[in-house]
Amino acid sequence: MTELAERIRSGDARALARAATLVENRNPRADALLTELFPHTGSATIVGVTGTPGAGKSTLVDQMTAAWRRDGKTVGVIAVDPTSPYTGGALLGDRIRMQRHHADPGVFIRSMATRGAMGGLARATTDMAVLFDAAGLDVVLVETVGVGQDEVEVARLADVTVVVLTPGLGDDVQAIKAGIMEIADIFAINKADLPGAAKLEREIRNHLSMSKRDDCWTPPVQLTVAHEGGGIGELLAAVAAYAQGRARKAQSGVLWRGRLREMLRDRLLERMPAAELDRAAEEVAERRRDPYTVVEEMLGRIFEKESGAS
Ligand SMILES: Nc1nc2c(ncn2[C@@H]2O[C@H](COP(=O)(O)OP(=O)(O)O)[C@@H](O)[C@H]2O)c(=O)[nH]1
Ligand SMILES: [Mg+2]
Description:
Layout: H1 3-9, H2 13-24, H3 28-37, E1 45-51, H4 57-70, E2 75-81, H5 88-102, E3 107-113, H6 120-134, E4 139-144, H7 149-157, E5 160-165, H8 171-178, E6 186-189, H9 197-210, E7 221-223, H10 232-245, H11 249-252, H12 254-270, H13 274-285, H14 291-309
Parallel strand pairs: 1-4, 1-5, 2-3, 2-4, 5-6, 6-7
Guanosine-5'-diphosphate binds near residues 55, 57, 58, 225 and 226.
């Protein structure tokens, strides 16, 4: 094993930080490192926390981290921040909030920028979770901002997905639209100190009663007041119950069926120069060529090059 891998395995925070940078920058050395570390993963519980911006996800993550630390568990946090300029304030807020954990060697926090490239986020987040897992962290919390595809990808990565909703904003309707109701293993109604929490809870339960899951699990609904620590213990109990009672997604193949597909797609796209793709797109748009033949030709060229190189 390389020295860097050894140091990560022993929980060396500086080595972990270095490796996280390699992963984030898609440094070619990251793949070799992850290959080395992968056999030493599978013991961390990966918890996704997702929901609309401002719902209180970061506040919840901070409180959950503190509570797990009190139980003696080590915690990794992957905060996926959008590049959107609107979140500048929230970003700073997150940093200040999480500051109290910075001196704690049992907590490792990493912020990541979302990438424009499709699949880039899921890949970077999965790789980061592999790192954290190999470093022996007990729990890996992944916070995503935004609504849509990102949530679905995180849900695929996580063993347990907590969807955070807030009362009074018509969040429920938004969530159903975006399909994030379907990925929730647990609901947290945060800002339960505000009016409308009971109504939202009824609406969620009503929605749940109409949509049975394949695994027959009915997602519990937990009221929380994150900034005061309300309902956090119950939320963690629900997370533990789900993680223990279920065949873990990471172990059941569900996660890796999706990830392998994405990795395959990413690797294929990496081998195709963007300029070439752009040119082909124009030709197809102008009906000078058809996309079916173009894709077959592209695949042919990729494999020809590969077999020629080996
Ligand atoms: N009233 C109320 N405000 C909260 C609660 N939890 C978080 N907040 C506030 O909501 C704002 C957004 O929280 P944040 O954690 O940054 O949301 P995120 O964008 O989902 O990560 C902050 O000002 C928090 O202090 C809560 O339970 N009740
Ligand atoms: Mg946040």
